[in-house]
Specification:
The protein is α/β, with parallel strands linked by helices. It has a single domain (5-161), classed as Ribonuclease H-like superfamily/Ribonuclease H (Nucleotidyltransferase, domain 5, 2-Layer Sandwich), CATH 3.30.420. The protein contains six helices and six strands, in the order E-E-E-E-H-E-H-H-E-H-H-H. It has helices at residues 51-65, 77-80, 82-91, 107-121, 129-145, 157-161; strands at 5-9, 18-24, 29-34, 42-46, 70-73, 94-97. The protein has a six-stranded mixed β-sheet, sandwiched between helices. The longest helix is centred in the last third of the chain and has 17 residues, at 129-145.
């Protein structure tokens, strides 16, 4: 089995103007989520995802979806780094770190991480990064378009956003 660091990115524009980033140990798995419709907009898989890669990804997503007012994260080194903090300041985005040892403060992304881990990471053996990316892309489409969410009144994220 391939030893992966997985970055999953769920970003939405929403009335709260906040995106959330959290992590779960697998061999490193990060998740980003919005609070409005739980739509997964992007999942990036690589062997490592330092702050420069994270901010480059966030820049691309901001181009598509607009800038959030706030980003909630854990206290991983990619978020406490000078690079990430300077990026936040330059973008005019507030940072809301969760307290150390308090993943429940980022419950939406922790739930998303668990679902992704169970459905994709724990259920498959990956032959390559591309294999992991292909299975993840299929899962992401199903998650957004076919999977109904109780918290969204049994609608899919895409249907709820419409």
């Amino acid at each position: 089995m391939l030893d992966l660091r997985v970055e999953e990115t769920t970003l939405t524009t929403n009335q709260l103007g906040m995106w959330s980033i959290g992590s779960v140990e697998i061999k490193k798995k990060k998740g980003y989520t919005g609070y409005a419709n739980r739509e997964c907009l992007c999942i990036t898989i690589d062997f490592n995802l330092p702050s420069r890669k994270v901010t480059a990804l966030l820049d691309r997503l901001i181009e598509c979806y607009g800038k959030p007012k706030r980003i909630r994260t854990d206290n991983g080194p990619e978020f406490t780094s000078k690079w990430f903090q300077l990026w936040l300041k330059q973008k005019g985005i507030a940072w809301s770190p969760i307290q150390k040892g308090s993943p429940q403060q980022n419950a939406i992304v922790e739930r998303f991480n668990r679902t992704y881990r169970e459905d994709v990471l724990d259920a498959n053996l990956f032959a390559s990064l591309n294999h992991a990316r292909e299975l993840t892309a299929k899962w992401r489409w199903e998650y957004n378009h076919e999977r109904e969410h109780q918290s969204l009144n049994y609608r899919t994220p895409i249907a709820y956003a419409a």
